[in-house]
Amino acid sequence: MIPLRTLSAVLIAALASGCSMIPDYLRPAAPVPASFPDAAPAATATPADAIAWRDYFADAQLREVIALALANNRDLRVAALNIEKARAQYGIQRADLYPAIGANAGQTAQRLPDGSGDGNVSRLYSATVGFSAYELDFFGRIRSLNEQALQLYLGSEEARRSGQISLVAEVARTWLALAADRERLALATRTLETRQKSFDLTQRSFDAGAVSALDLRQADTLLQGARADAARYRSVVAQDEHALALLAGAAVPAEWLPSQLPEGLAAVAELPAGVPSETLTRRPDIVQAEHALRAANASIGAARAAFFPRITLTAAAGTASTSLGDLFGSGSGTWSFIPQLRVPIFEAGRLQASLDVAEVQRDIQVAQYEKAIQSAFREAADALAERATLSEQLDAQRRLVDAATAGFQLSDARYRAGVDSYLGLLDAQRALYAAEQDLIGVRLAETANRVALYKVLGGGWR
Questions:
Q1: In this structure, are residues 462 and 70 in contact, taking their beta carbons and an 8 Å threshold?
Q2: Alpha-carbon torsion (70, 75, 79, 85), positive or negative
Q3: Cα separation of 175 and 243, whole Å?
Q4: Domains contained in the chain, CATH given
Q5: What H or E segment, with its residue span, contains residue 134?
Q6: What phi and psi, each to the nearest 5 degrees, are found at residue 239?
Q7: Which pTM does this prediction carry?
């Protein structure tokens, strides 16, 4: 019988002498400019991916909703389960590096004719411990597959991080949209009340013969427009609340819902937008794409190793006896050792085709990795370009509201004094209402831009 210690030493030496067929990995150069356009220098600022979302968002209500979503969102839960699945698959693949040892017990019964017609029945009982078809990984096929599984597992972790950042940003965006639509609803409701009073006054003036039917119909037109807006925004607000509940994975308490857009959404005044675009490679989705590229690179090693001989070992040691009672008796020891060598000679091009597939898949992953970087660069550049003009837009829109308010007050005074027609007052009302609605939209764009910029620069996910 071969001592198990000796056999183990042989196996360890064989593994240590193995080689790898995996090509050397070189990260592809980022196919984007070295710096972002429209980015102001911010060399001393903290990197965006180092700022936790709790430190970034200043509104306490929003932080509560984000925490609720992170605990209950089903998409994020699926991403976490995918990590567990990838970890288990990696464990399965990693187990192939070691022999699977098992115990076997059995009986073999055989009847042979003895010429007399009765036949001779023989039985053999056995109990063994050993391993079967264990491959010595001289050429790194198993290690290549193990590396591939490892990179896919690491990629699943990055997918969860990316999903978490996206969830935080989407919750913030939906919460802000709800805040803006509630402001629009409140504005439409106030406008409806004002126009209802104006219409009632016009109706009484018309009944007294002081105004024309045209003035009455124009006042009614504005009134019905405000009614339609109020009804529409009630529907939009309800839809926003449903979307927020879906993201949160649970009902959102009423005290966490916003009544209007916050003035100070972000606790961080400015993100470090002026850093080189190379920092995009730290974004989880980019890291995930790189892990997929590394996995494809490892699969080439497995395809190359398939061209070389494959050595497998089967070994067992135990006892055997023709009598069950003597199975563990003296002199019943038995062992077997079966090495096998398989050398590919003719595969009809199968092995070369498998290698070609692996190399093409690697090239596909390179293209996808580069596309992911380009998409991330565009997202960041778009957010920076928008931010560069939002301050000016917001200032201009506020001045427009002030001007429209002053114009409406002047038109109202002139109409009451009999200097101007009712048509001028109606035009001033329309202009003021439109300017106030547009101001809400610009304020929403400014706060949403802060959320978008935090996301596209790889904001902290913890």
A1: no
A2: positive
A3: 9
A4: 23-98+139-307+351-456 (1.20.1600.10)
A5: strand 120-136
A6: -65, -40
A7: 0.81
Q: In what order do the strands lie in the sheet with 333-342?
A: 101-112, 120-136, 310-321, 333-342
Please calculate the CA angle 122-124-130 and round it to the nearest 5 degrees: 160
Are the C-beta atoms of residues 21 and 301 closer than 8 Å to each other?
yes
Under 8 Å CB-to-CB from 450, ≥6 apart: which residues?
265, 266
Cα–Cα distance between 313 and 311 in angstroms, integer? 7
Residue 247: CB partners within 8 Å, gap ≥ 6? 69, 73, 167, 170, 171, 174
Residue 291 structure tokens: 């892990």
Cα–Cα distance for residue pair 305/137, rounded to 1 Å: 9
Selection from 330, 333, 329 nearest residue 316 by Cα: 333
When pLDDT is averaged across residues 448-455 and rounded to a whole number, the result is: 89
Contact by Cβ (8 Å): 336, 315: yes
Residue type, 45: A
Query: Which residue type, as a one-letter code, is found at position 168?
Result: V
pLDDT given at position 12: 47
- The per-residue pLDDT for range 93-118, each reduced to its tens digit, is 888 888 888 898 888 888 777 766 66
Q: How far apart are CA 426 and CA 325, in angstroms?
A: 110
Helices and strands, number each (H, E), in the chain: 9, 4
427: its two tokens: 């035009």
Alpha helices (H) along 255-349 = 284-305
DSSP notation for 414-442 = HHHTTSS-HHHHHHHHHHHHHHHHHHHHH
Buried-state track 210-229, b at ≥16 Cβ within 10 A, e below 16:
ebeeebbebbeebbebbeeb
What pLDDT band is residue 270 in, cutting at 50, 70 and 90? low
Extract the tokens encoding 446. Answer: 């400014």
Centre a 10 Å sphere on the Cβ of residue 408 and count the other Cβ atoms it contains: 19
Q: Is 44 exposed, middle or buried (0-12, 13-18, 19+ CB in 10 A)?
A: exposed
Query: Could you tell me which residues are beta bridge partners of residue 266?
Result: 57
